[in-house]
Write a structure and sequence with these properties.
five-stranded antiparallel β-sheet; globular; TATA-Binding Protein; BBS7_pf_dom; coiled coil; six-stranded antiparallel β-sheet; Methylamine Dehydrogenase, Chain H; Immunoglobulin-like; BBS7 protein
Length: about 725
């Protein structure tokens, strides 16, 4: 059955980070549970709900931001001790708020992820994992890429300590002591881990993971290898997954999977069969879901899903009916409890309005005095800049704790702004002078009232690199703006992958010179996305990439004094050659560059591009015919006399226009890539063929694959 859930907003704390809200165990079977939450003001707040009102249990003083909050206690006892990660310190509180632990770790960075199992404490900074037992250092591991989350399989079921790290390079790293046991390859960068069913399943080995590109999966972590159980793609193009919990909200005796995403979606997955879970219900909030828990919070006997949002709202989706019916024929009447709540909210609102007026007058007086000092209000921005594999575009998500007034986007490299369905802001473009100032894009997004989250999409051109800047102005007084910068890399449309097809015709670029491992790694970081900034351990490293727009690939292997780059796209090799030479020249390092060009690779790349080119040309032709066909339809009354292909264009006109609008300049980009491929092929032979480009464009308009390949061969 479909769950009937009503939204209840309980309380707002400060801005919250991922996984910083938990429900304390209930004292009785159907009794309400206390909520404990930590915010970025450093405050731990514990409260319960009585008669619909939040009643505080305890509240700590402000301090450094809280990055994680977990519950702990002795194994097989109620987990009711509260542990928070603040900077590099872990503090412990009882359920009454008394601090019993202040453990200063030996980590030099802030704690990013934390997990507690009995006396064992698992902590992760950006790249470092530490295991402590009774606050004594036990094990240490240096990860190859950033660690996003950590957990440990239940010791009482698997009889050994098995920590699992969720790492940014699309792998789960399974550890044994201080050693890597094995790696599990995932379809996307994992952002959150949870034990299946809250206990690891029957075997205790099952882990549910969520990725930053919105995929959800379950894998079984055995002693020797991982066994994938199921995986759900992100067909609806929803946000990345930030939090997961297991709870029986439907009351059918089987725990459902609760998922919170960074676009505000809360999802309930039901295990109807023993295999894959099925999405049963979803609910949209206006901001990202930082934490999610299932339990009984608002009223005895009524289960609910509690979510903590980015701006600090604690919102419940409760099974308790909101309205009570009087009798047949009578109007719905609000309960006395609800009327009292409305009355108290009105009083609170009036008091707040009076307080705001008083503070505003006070500010106006102080700002006009001779000793006035301008104070800039601080506000927090949660931003994410990620490459989407599906449409080879970058998503820029900006989330502010208060309403956004406008966002100005500026770029010093050519970018296409793409349409986003969820975006209700009004965009206006300003003309910009690209020559003296290298200013290629200037656009302003004016947001509607109460918009706290804005999503933009841009597509870059490989080979052109620079900076995208977003100037975020919220609706606060005095007017304040924050600037956020995002690097557009030379090979910006490449994405890390686990392996590549070695049978493709490959071009090779070889570098040799007096450079260190750290120097060549910094050049690769500059050129390609998703490469960890920290220099890898060991003497040599290999990374694999795939071009999200064309499907071509790149293999990058380097060590001190030498680097090898292989790609089936000669333009990728050309871009790398130019950029790496430039970077080495900046540091006054003499490079010996050699290359091996495979003639078959150009034909192979053209065959990869051609289906996309054909599709886009056909789409453009259809769109250009729509107005004329619609005019014919108006004049003639019906279109039965038209050929079936023209009738289908009229029937699909809205979808065709929508698709064309969503992908502006797509055809021009493909033309540009083929032109670059043509120029780069002959550049490696030492021939300048720019004069033949107009002839190439004529052939492209004809869309003949054989003719195009013949032109490349003959030129």
């Amino acid at each position: 059955m479909e769950p009937s859930l009503a939204r209840v907003d309980y309380l707002q704390v400060g801005v919250t980070a991922q996984k910083t809200m938990r429900l304390l165990p209930a004292s009785g079977k159907k009794a309400t549970q206390k909520v404990v939450v930590g915010d970025q003001d450093g405050v731990v707040t514990c409260f319960g709900i009585k008669k619909g009102e939040a009643v505080p249990v305890f509240k700590t003083l402000p301090g450094q931001r809280i990055s994680r909050l977990e519950l702990g206690g002795a194994l097989n006892t109620p987990q009711e001790k509260i542990f928070v990660a603040i900077g590099s310190e872990v503090r412990g509180f009882t359920k009454r708020g008394k601090q019993f632990l202040s453990f200063e770790t030996n980590l030099t960075e802030s704690i990013k992820a934390m997990y507690i199992s009995g006396a064992d404490l698992f902590l992760c900074a950006s790249y470092i994992y530490n295991h402590y037992c009774d606050c004594k250092d036990q094990h240490y591991f240096l990860s190859g890429d950033k660690i996003n989350d950590v957990l440990c399989l239940p010791v009482d079921k698997v009889n050994c300590i098995t920590p699992v790290l969720a790492c940014q390079d699309r792998v789960l790293r399974v550890l044994q002591g201080s050693d890597l046991l094995y790696e599990v390859e995932l379809p996307g960068p994992p952002t959150v881990l949870a034990l299946s069913n809250g206990n690891g399943g029957d075997s205790g080995e099952e882990i549910v993971y969520g990725t930053s590109d919105g995929k959800l999966g379950l894998t079984q972590i055995t002693g020797t290898k991982a066994i994938p159980r199921w995986e759900i793609g992100n067909e609806k193009k929803r946000g990345g997954i930030l939090c997961i919990d297991s709870f029986d909200i439907l009351g059918d005796g089987v725990k459902e999977l609760l998922v919170g995403r960074d676009d505000g979606m809360i999802e309930i997955y039901n295990f109807e069969s023993a295999d894959d879970p099925v999405l049963r219900h979803d609910y949209a909030l206006s901001e990202s879901i930082a934490s999610i828990q299932g339990g009984c919070v608002g009223k005895d006997g009524y289960d609910e899903i509690l979510a903590a949002t980015y701006s600090g709202w604690l919102t419940g989706l409760t099974t308790e009916p909101v309205h009570r019916e009087g009798g047949s024929g009578e109007e719905l009447k609000l309960s006395q409890e609800m009327q009292n709540k409305i009355s108290s909210l009105r009083n609170e609102l009036e008091q707040l309005q009076i307080k705001v007026l008083q503070e505003r007058e006070k500010y106006q007086q102080s700002s006009h005095s001779s000793t006035a000092v301008s104070s800039v209000p601080a506000f927090s921005v949660n931003d994410k800049f990620t490459l989407n594999k599906d449409d080879a575009s970058y998503s820029l998500t900006l989330e502010v704790q208060t309403a956004i007034d406008n966002v100005l986007v500026q770029s010093d490299v050519p970018l296409d702004l793409l349409d986003v369905d969820k975006n209700s802001a009004v965009v206006s473009f300003s003309s910009c002078d690209s020559e003296p100032n290298s200013n290629f894009l200037l656009a302003t997004y004016r947001c509607q009232a109460n918009t706290t989250r804005l999503e933009l999409k841009v597509r870059s051109i490989e080979g052109q690199y620079g900076t995208l800047q977003a100037y975020v102005t919220p609706r606060i007084q005095p007017k304040t703006c924050q600037v956020h910068q995002y690097q557009i890399k030379p090979l910006s449309l490449h994405q890390r992958t686990h392996s590549i097809d070695q049978d493709r015709p490959m071009n090779t670029l070889m570098l040799k010179g007096q450079f260190s491992f750290a120097e060549i790694h910094s050049w690769v970081v500059f050129c390609l996305p998703e490469v960890p900034e920290k220099t890898p351990a060991g003497e040599c490293i290999t990374f694999y990439f795939q071009n999200t727009f064309l499907g071509t690939q790149l293999e990058s292997t380097y060590r001190k004094g030498e680097g090898y780059f292989k790609s089936d796209n000669i333009s990728t090799i050309s871009i790398l050659k130019d950029v790496l030479s430039k970077e080495a020249t900046k540091r006054k390092i003499n490079l010996n560059i050699s290359y091996d060009v495979n003639e078959g690779s150009v034909r192979h790349t053209l065959k990869l591009i051609h289906p996309k080119l054909e599709y886009q040309q056909l789409l453009a032709k259809k769109v250009h015919l729509i107005d004329a066909l619609r005019e014919l339809q108006v004049h003639e009354g019906n279109v039965d006399f038209l050929l079936p292909k023209y009738r289908s264009i009229l029937e699909e006109a809205d979808q065709l226009l929508e698709e064309y609008k969503r992908q502006p300049a797509h055809l021009e980009r493909l033309y540009g890539m083929i032109t670059d491929l043509f120029i780069d092929k002959f550049k490696f032979k030492g021939t300048n063929v720019k004069t033949k480009v107009p002839l190439l464009l004529e052939i492209l308009d004809g869309c003949d694959q054989d003719g195009l390949i013949a032109f490349f061969d003959a030129a």
